[in-house]
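Office hours follow-up: a student asked to see two folded examples consecutively, so here they are.
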Amino acid sequence: MITLIHMAEGKPHPSSTKTSPRSRPPRPAEAARYACEQLASLIVHEPEGVSGVTRDEDGWVVSVDVLEVARIPDTTSLLATYEVRVDQRGELQEYRRVRRYRRGAADDC
């Protein structure tokens, strides 16, 4: 059994009472959750959501959107997308910021 500690509160994470699913390869939703939890423990900003999950030969690549600078009005806040790689067990392998943008800004197509 794995006990996860919620970094902001120092309390056991709600999912820590379950038996770890890491004994098998994670599903896309699990890989995304693991990526968000592990990224949040390394950077000072909380993830807002996941914008992509891709399977690769070593595990998963998860695009995690993070609020980096909150502003008023909210449409001027700065967000970033981090590329987070987790292995077949859901363990963090690497992460990097790949994009920084203003909330509501359209993608260049």
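And the second, which I mentioned at the end of office hours:
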Amino acid sequence: MIEILTTGGTIDKVYFDANSAFEIGDSLLPELLAESNIHEGYEMRSLLRKDSLEMTDADRAEVLAAVEGSQSDRILITHGTDTMAQTAQVLKAVTDKTIVLTGAMQPARMRSSDAVFNIGFAWAAVSLLPAGVYIAMNGEVFEAGAVRKNLQAQKFERA
């Protein structure tokens, strides 16, 4: 059984109009999984509903505690892309589980989002990789501590 933890981030953002700020809405993860033809084999739990730039050390400690307390040895975490690498670094303290973080560069609610692909790809990664902490984004897997987000290129790359 794969445990999926949601923390918010762009994947769950809702924009109301061009003049509004965004909000983190209810997770679309069940719909994204279904669209990826994944209907069973997981339990989902919402931890946070935050933009990753607003995540604190206390929030990362909460994510770490949830991972450490999980009965599953395979955990997928949806997370905002801006500080995903920092959270992955904190999770390196867990050495006996396969942990994969993923997210989206565009909200799942937008037609051109990479969310469905990233969720499906992360599902495969968490199912197949050995114990460790990874980021799975846009068709690539990166080990925690060896990845950074390139803001200009809007992609992850090896650090």
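Two things to take away from it. Residues 2-158 form a domain with the Rossmann fold fold (CATH 3.40.50.1170). The two ends are 32 Å apart (CA to CA).
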